Amino acid sequence: MIYCKRCLYPSNHPYGMIFDENGICMGCRVHEEKDQLDWKERFKRLQKITHNSKLMSNKNFDCIIPVTGGGDSYYIVHVVKNLLGMNPLLVNYNSHYNTKLGIRNLANLTTVFDCDMITSTISPNHLKKITNQTIKQYGSMYWQVLSGYTTFPVQVAVKFRIPLIIWGVHPWSEQTGMFSHLDEVEMTHRCRKEHALMGISAEDLVHKKSEVSRSEVQQFIYPYDNELEKVGVRGIYLSNYIRWDSKSQHEQMIDEYGYETAEMQRTFNTYEDVHCFHSAGIHDYLKFLKYGYSKVTDHASREIRLKRMTRKTGINMVKKYTDKYPSDLNLFLKWIGMQEEEFFSYVDKFRDKKIWKNDNNQWILRDSINNHLKSDDLFTKKLKDDCEFRITKNAEPSIKDDEYLLMGRAYVDSRNYGSQEDRSVGGAMTKRKWKRPSIK
């Protein structure tokens, strides 16, 4: 297996990975643009796009922002509402895998930014049926999350005739350098299917041997071209116009808006996956079983590129977390109604044979990043910043977060674990001075 000599990514990355003559991956090369581009000029380009959208909104919502109770949602809303002066409609797909912390973050988000939000919650039994099918057919228990997150906002855009959707980071450029920032690529049906959904559309779940009908996947069907063209729907990525640094952005949101963080079981990053039991748990473990690397590789590679972590430290993080058995597995198996042995029998069919071999019914890695310690030492010889990820105070420390919370509070106030209104400014929320009240 070929590994990048600068970061930790392998050549079997599912998005596709290309290396230059020096053994450096295109993800690292495209990342270099972050220190070369004129980001003030690029932000002006963003302002022009959003200004035109506001002119077309006709006193309606100016744009749509897909949000979760984790990830970069706070920062995207902050930029769109406070820096660009837009009136966004927040759109949330309910994955059913919600942590209580994630629900708190989501409620706090709508409150501190004073935004309207629409949520899609599919019948639990309906979703279990679809997930059962994707496990058996594709070895994926997370397809519905990715599909719902990338479909529902577009459906809302068509329904309410809101032409602009603003996403955060373009993940395929951020990880593998699929495109330059200068390409200003946008969200499309093809992009969603080929990359976000690994080539699996909702229509693919419906066939003669499937138990899922066409009507049951309707909520995962992407709008048709004529529907999109009628409204003029387009989806842009902020990372093409703003220098993207997820760690710094999260820390700004922690300080200014009370975003909550938590320790994750399979990575050192405590910021991004707090809303979901499985994103950094069993879902990430399946990624390891399929490709031989996992989320901690994504996070360490990012920090190496941002010169906050050495490659050696990154490899040590991979050693620490990658093969850690997920503690959330039983929670998912209970929900889906499947035995552990059966579950892994479906997953094993999708192991990448370039990185895994089966020796007497034991799966063994043919190679790993641990065998590739040589690196471009000059690149991270002088680190620019620390790589400490913070864990915030839990707003509900006495409540166990050990089972799914399908739906929760829609807002927060001084009696509801969150924000307090400053009546000195006419009852409006004072965002930068806001502090979470102490819980006694």
Write the topology of this structure:
Blueprint: H1 26-31, H2 39-56, E1 63-66, H3 73-83, E2 88-93, H4 100-112, E3 116-120, H5 124-138, H6 143-159, E4 164-167, H7 171-176, H8 189-196, H9 225-231, E5 234-237, H10 246-257, H11 282-291, H12 295-305, H13 311-321, H14 329-336, H15 340-348, E6 356-359, E7 362-365
Parallel strand pairs: 1-2, 2-3, 4-5
Antiparallel strand pairs: 6-7
Helix pairs in contact: 12-13
In short:
With about 450 residues, the chain is mainly alpha-helical. Helix content is about 35%, strand content about 5%. It has a 3-stranded parallel beta sheet with strand order 1-2-3.
Instruction: Kindly report the average pLDDT value.
Output: 91
Compressed to H and E, one letter per element, the order equals HHEHEHEHHEHHHEHHHHHHEE
Q: What is the CATH topology descriptor? A: Rossmann fold
Report the total helices: 15
Question: What features would you highlight for this structure?
Answer:
mainly alpha; Rossmann fold; three-stranded parallel beta sheet; 15 helices; 7 strands
